[in-house]
Structure prediction request, 181 residues.
Amino acid sequence: MKKDKGKSWIQVRKKYESRIGRIAMVFPLINIVLQRYAWLLWGLEPEFGRIVTKGLTTDRLVEKIRSSFCELEGEEEAISELEVIITRVRALLKRRNQLFHSMWVMQGEQPVFISERSHEKEPIPELQELEALYNSLADLINDLLRFYRQNRWLGGIGLATRRKYGRSGAKPVPTTPNEDN
Prediction:
């Protein structure tokens, strides 16, 4: 009989490990998409973009993108959409961190979720909650990629060039022979 309980415990544990593993695998994609968008927004080639964003946490990267985006005038719709996405990134990041920076203990057949910070037992997330978190992360990646594609024109030329010359980044053609800009 003890053998059956052991198998059941392993099955429960594997279901949790599988869901947590899927979350662990998908979350770095969010950071990668955010990095690529930051490079585009700042007008950086990938070689330099990697240097600038290396080691930035997702939360810090989001804040830098948000701060940069706020420098764009006349792009309220895109800025509002980015704010919604940033709110989602931060909420999902917070939940992911709660799960990943806590100690998980299995007692018998029942998982016990123990928070590392408080050392008190926390509610055990249901398998459905972990699956929903994974699905939310996947949806967020799709929304980030869509935003990236739809707002590519906001970057590429870099914020400084865009500020100076407008959306196209093209230096105005002189209208008179004496005009420099």
About this structure: The chain has six helices and three strands.
